[in-house]
Every structure is written in C-alpha cells, then in structure tokens.
Queue: 3 jobs
Job 1
Amino acid sequence: MDLSGKYNSIAVIEVRIMTLASEGYSVKFNLVSKIMSWRDYYMWNNNFTRAISDDSCALIKESLPKIGIIEWMMAYNDKLTDEIESKFPSQGEWKINIEFEDGTKFESGAEQNFPKDWNSLRSLIEKVTGCSFLLH
C-alpha cells in the first residue's frame, strides 16, 4: 500500500511513552506552525515549547516514512503485530496521535509491547528535541 500521500500530509504528530506508574514523556511536533511541545511527567519543570528549525522539520518529514510509523499504527489497530512487534515486553506503553492537513486524525498505541523499530523513532525524537526519550 502506498502511503506517501498520507506521510506528506502529516500536520501534527504526538508521541507519548509512559510507565505503568504514569511517568514518562510526551512530544508534539506541529509541522505546519513549526513548533514542538515537550512534556516531562517525571519533572514538570522540564516542560517546554519552542520552534522547530526548517532542517529539523525536513528531517522529521523525511524520516517518518522510512521508520514506517503509519504502518505500525495500522498493524496495532488491526491486531496484526506479529511481524512488527518486539518479542521483548517492556514495562510501559506508547501512544501516537497524528493529525493530517485535512483535519482527520489517526491514533494508535499499546501496553508492554513496542514495535521492533521503536528505537528509530526514539532516536529521531532525541535528535530533534535534544532530550532523552527513554523510560526510567
């Protein structure tokens, strides 16, 4: 399935990871207004909102199709995770919300099971935000 049109029309993407004790991080990238919001559920005073550079915006748009984030979300929503899921359970959960330019929204997530290529998304987030995106 060709999802290039969907990837090209992502306006906002929000990624959240949380421990079972409701600690973790959330990052929201608005690719239209070029603003990111960081939420630290461990230490609220680490929260911030700031501009995303043109280079970082381009990196996000270029990386998401390579990572296959929409395919993950579709697989998790359809309960077809055998091929994409890590076989090593984690003590946490993830959730991704995407808003497209036409206003439609897509959301997915899971508890204790992360996609195999989660580290690619985590690395992208860390590169753009300059913050660690690992659960403690």
Job 2
Amino acid sequence: MNFKQDGFINGSVIVLLIGGLMLGGLLVYGAKSGQELPFWPAIAVAVVNLVAAAKIVIDTKKARRQKHPPKTNTPPDDPRCP
C-alpha cells in the first residue's frame, strides 16, 4: 500500500509519542514506587524511539529528494532541441 503522508502526524511520529509516554510512565512508576527503573523495558523503549526518529529523518530526506530532483546536464528528449 503506497500512501503519501502530507501532514505532520504519520506512523513514525505516533511511535515516538507512544514511546515517550511509555518512558514517562516508567519514570513515574519508579518515582511513585521507590523502586529503580526497570532496565530492560527502559532499553526497549529507548531503542524503539531511536528507530522511529531515524525513520522520520530518512522519510524527510526522501520526501525532499522527491520534491526537488537533482539537476542533470543532459538535454531534454525533445526533438526540436538542437
């Protein structure tokens, strides 16, 4: 399924928001219960956030390249051009 996202909220941004909420929830849980932050869930959330951020950067660069294609020195394929 190919769908071009024009708005700000796309899948990667939603993943970042959910990951941020999860990390915030872990921090609140640790503060309320007095226990240390669970290590592996915190690492999992951090990795998901990093992957989502990388996907946003890659998608943004790809969209900019498609919007502004690189200039070439080849002439157009118009038979009227000498």
Job 3
Amino acid sequence: MTSTESITPIVSAVLSSDFLLAAKDGFLQSQSARTVAWVLGLLVVMGTAWGASAISGSIRRKERAKQSSKKSKPKDVFDEICSAHGLSPEEKRQLLGGAAVLDLVSPALLFVDSGLLNQLATSDREDAGEFRKLADRLFPPDAAPSEADLADLTETPTVV
C-alpha cells in the first residue's frame, strides 16, 4: 500500500459532510467556541485582504518603475544632442560646466537658446573663448534662420 492510498480514506472521511456536521455540532455549542471561530474567520479574511493588497502594491510599484525608466532624463537628452553634433568629451564637460554656472534645469537648454552660450562666451571667465567657439559651431552666425524661426519672429504675440 502506497502512502497516497493510506491517506485517501482519512481525507475522504474528513471531507465528508457527516464528519463536518458532527464537528460543527460538537465544537460550536459554547459561546466562547463561537467567538473563537468568528475571530479565526476574521483573521483569515483580513490576512487574505492584506496579502492581496501587498501583491497588488508590489505589481503597481514594478509597473511604475518600468514607466519611469522609459522616460528620458535631461542628462540623456543632453548626451543624445552632444552625440548628434559630434562633440568631444571635453566639449561635453565644458557645456555641463557652463550649464552649472547658469544654474540651468537641463544642460540641453544650451542647444535651444543661443543667448545662453553667448552669455558664457562674453563673460569674464577664462574659458570664454572656448564657449565662443562652441557657440559659433552650434549656432553659426551666417546661418539663415529656418522657416519655423522666421514664423516665430514674425508672429505678433496675443495678449489674453
């Protein structure tokens, strides 16, 4: 006889309705036994709710972590723009230093507003000449403005 064959009659006896009814009638006759049964039942329900809450919270945290890792960070955008312009690591360090001096939210703003680089190029800093070279390289003085820039310049601002 295998171990599962020897357990089968015991399990079927425990799960039979006669056994459960006999246990119910004998066990829950006193008030204290009923109270204990209610408390145990509530503990099981609360434990199940707590476990489900913990699992769903863990799943939500993992999803949020995945979403936040997909968002571009200002430093990532800066690195992409530097690569697109073919800047050397020294030029990148110089721009990062300039962004720190200007207290910019993102160093990538140096690529958007030529006035920021011009500020650094005309400052009393010892590396102002290097910033002038970068400004001329990134924003050539003889370059014609794009159609979008011209449209921005000719638009009249609307006052709300």
